[in-house]
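About this split. The held-out portion is used to measure sequence recovery: a designer receives only the structure tokens and must propose an amino acid at every position. Recovery is the fraction of positions where the proposal matches the reference. Here is one held-out target exactly as it appears in the evaluation file.
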């Protein structure tokens, strides 16, 4: 799947897709989840580490991921106005409240 052949018989490489790991924050939409990805960056001004959070809408075909699950996102073709990511796999299931 990573390699395909064009009509001249030459094989060409598909560029590597970006992967992100995040936590599902919303699963209220059909076939879509909102995933928060956090990054730790160093402030150029204060030289201290800060946590930045970005939310992505990702495609989930079977609606099998729920709030609190840690998932792997993979970059994909645009599926709607905001969806540019797809949930590849579940890394860790959310713990149930006790």
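Reference sequence for scoring:
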């Amino acid at each position: 799947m990573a390699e395909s052949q064009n009509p001249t018989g030459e094989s060409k490489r598909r560029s590597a897709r970006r992967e992100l790991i995040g936590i599902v924050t919303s699963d209220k939409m059909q076939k879509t989840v909102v995933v928060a990805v956090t990054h730790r960056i160093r402030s150029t001004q204060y030289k201290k580490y800060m946590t930045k959070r970005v939310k992505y809408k990702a495609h989930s075909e079977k609606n099998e991921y729920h709030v609190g699950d840690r998932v792997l996102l993979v970059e994909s073709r645009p599926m709607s106005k905001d969806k540019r990511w797809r949930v590849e796999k579940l890394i860790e299931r959310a713990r149930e409240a006790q």
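Annotator remark: The mean pLDDT is 90.
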